[in-house]
Amino acid sequence: MTKAEEKNDVDHQQSKEVKSKVVAVVAEDAPMKRSSAENDHGKTEEESEHALKRGRTNEESSDKASVAAEQKEEETKKVAPRVTPYSILSMEYCKVQTLTVSDQHATLLLTHTENVATAIENDTKDGDKEAEEESFSVPKEVNSLLKLTVIPFHKALLGSNPIQSSDDNIKPDLKLLQNDPSASKAIVSFLHRYNWNLKSESGAEYSYYSANPTVGVIANESNGKDDIQKLDVDTAMTAKGENDATNQLNPAQLLASALKSFGSFDVELISPASEKQLYRAMPSLGSTFVHETPQLYNTVVQPYIQSIIEGNSLNWIQNIIHGKKEKERLLVEHDLFVVNIDTKWRSHPDPNTVPREQWLNHESTSDLYCLGIVKQDGIATLRDLTVTHIPLLKTLQEEGFSAIEKIYGVTRDQVRCFVHYQPQFYHFHVHFTRLENEIGSTIERGHLVSDIIQNLEIGDGSFYEKRTITYKLKKASPLHNLIENQSSLR
Fold first, then answer.
1. Which residue spans within 378-482 are E strands per DSSP?
2. Pick from 413, 333, 313, 407: which is nearest to 373 by CA?
3. Residue 468 three-state SS
4. What is the pLDDT of residue 266?
5. Side by side, which strands form the sheet with 206-213?
6. In whole angstroms, how far apart are CA 295 and each of 131, 300, 387, 403, 474?
7. Helix axis angle, 181-191 relative to 251-259, nearest 10°?
8. Which run of H or of E encompasses 94?
């Protein structure tokens, strides 16, 4: 080939490459140009070209911002991956004990390890990967709570490792039982055969799932660390006879029985669970009446409440108030408060899939349970209410009643509106329940909002600041321990 031919061949090849690039660019920009042409009929060709360039620049900036946001999100996921029931059950160490169990519900205590950062990001030098990796490899024991809406034939297995004896002849403080490792492994192995689908989460320690049996999928996702899945059902059945003399099934037999009757259930995960949350879920070691005087409140109870508020354990409430989480549960949005479907209303139609018009007169309204949460900070409990809060209480109660009647068809004469003292969490909220649903409405804990309003209208409106409030408190709970310690110093 002559030099001239070589040059022509190179030029021809370069021409083909340039044409290919032009075609690619034109194809990529075609939609943009069509859009620009439609919007710039009256413009000159030069003006249209400028518009195209501006459009491309804006799109590139938008793409860069989108990529940066995605990268930031991915980095966040790497630092703080979502804790799920499956991830907990898959951990190298995971112990499961039964706190409570019935035909419909089970509450399980999960004690497990978790890799946590022990150093703040700023304390790790840039580029010091070894130090950064080390900060994420320190094992820590964590407690989580798994609340299941189960089906009756799972009761035997899920209740096979109780944390406390059910023998009424044993003193409450002697009822705690040792963990049964084989029962714990059987429960974990059973739950590990479920697929856990996230329904909603508060952005803090609370998240909600639907659990569906997907044995094949779960097995394929095993990373090899979960040796409890190796508990073979057929092998378990060969163990039958060990307890025939007492007509009791061992954990392996209970697992084999449960696996014959898979079923779906709803799940609430609290991870990590605080000391207060654990005590609330624990079987009671007995309770006692507390007569809380203003002095006891000021010296013991109020400092305890303040320590919890300052501990940032209520961030999930802010997520709900500001519409970042649980939007599908929102019933009333007001400048001063929100009213939501309470998670304790387990029979409620799925807010994500069932249209709201089908909620009217739904059969589940017998279990009606809604929650009104004020947006104002600084009102932790009943004790903080004064005469200035009367308009807020009246409006909250009225809006709640109206929404419930409109959405569910339940009239106000069938709904109680009340608050708890002591409450479940220390950000002021009220409960709406149907009369036949008596959850949380015991006389030693519930206070009707209508009565609260009348009490605040008496005198100078400092009724709850000055009165002694009597309530039931679990023995050995954090607050009970503080009160007992105060009493012993007298």
1. 415-420, 429-434, 446-448, 469-474
2. 333
3. coil
4. 87
5. 94-101, 105-116, 138-149, 265-270, 206-213, 194-201
6. 50, 8, 21, 40, 21
7. 10
8. strand 94-101
The residue assigned the tokens 């209410």 is 385
* Relative orientation angle of helices 302-310 and 478-488, to the nearest 10 degrees: 140
Residue 272: cis peptide before it, omega within 30 degrees of 0: yes
451 CB contacts (<8 Å, ≥6 apart)? none
CA distance 306 to 302: 6
Q: Is residue 429 annotated as a catalytic residue, yes or no?
A: yes
**137 close to 115: Cβ distance less than 8 angstroms:** yes
Distance CA 271, CA 141 (A): 12
From start to end of 173-218, where are the E strands? 194-201, 206-213
Residue 16, C-beta contacts closer than 8 angstroms, at least 6 positions apart: none
- Amino acid making up residue 243: N
Task: To the nearest 10°, report the CA torsion of 159, 165, 167, 170.
Answer: -170
Question: Per the structure block, which two tokens stand in for 4?
Answer: 């001239």
CA nearest neighbour of 208 among 356, 367, 344, 404: 344
- From CA 196, how far away is CA 209, in angstroms rounded? 6
Ranges of residues in the chain whose predicted pLDDT is under 70: 1-81, 115-139, 166-175, 203, 214-248, 259, 488-490
CA quadruple 212, 216, 220, 225: dihedral, nearest 10: 70
Amino acid present at 268 = E
Q: Which two tokens stand for residue 343?
A: 């998670």
- At 411 the three-state DSSP class reads coil
The catalytically annotated residue of 362, 429, 431, 447 is 429
Distance CA 409, CA 402 (A): 10
| Burial (CB count within 10 angstroms: exposed 0-12, middle 13-18, buried 19+), residue 332 | middle
Query: 3-class SS at 175?
Result: coil
Which helix or strand (DSSP H or E) is residue 37 part of? helix 3-39
Distance, in Å, from the CA atom of 164 to the CA atom of 175, rounded to the nearest integer, reads 5
Structure-block tokens of residue 313: 């354990």
Q: 């007169």: which residue's tokens? A: 361
* Residues 164 and 175 sit within 8 Å (Cβ to Cβ): yes
Crossing angle of helices 449-456 and 390-408, in 10° steps, is 160
d(CA 325, CA 202): 5
Report the DSSP beta bridge partners of residue 269.
146, 207
Tens of pLDDT, residues 352-405:
999 999 999 999 999 999 999 999 999 999 999 999 999 999 999 999 999 999
Question: Residue 440: left (phi > 0), alpha (psi -120 to 50), or beta?
Answer: left
Q: Is residue 195 within 8 Å of 217, Cβ to Cβ?
A: yes
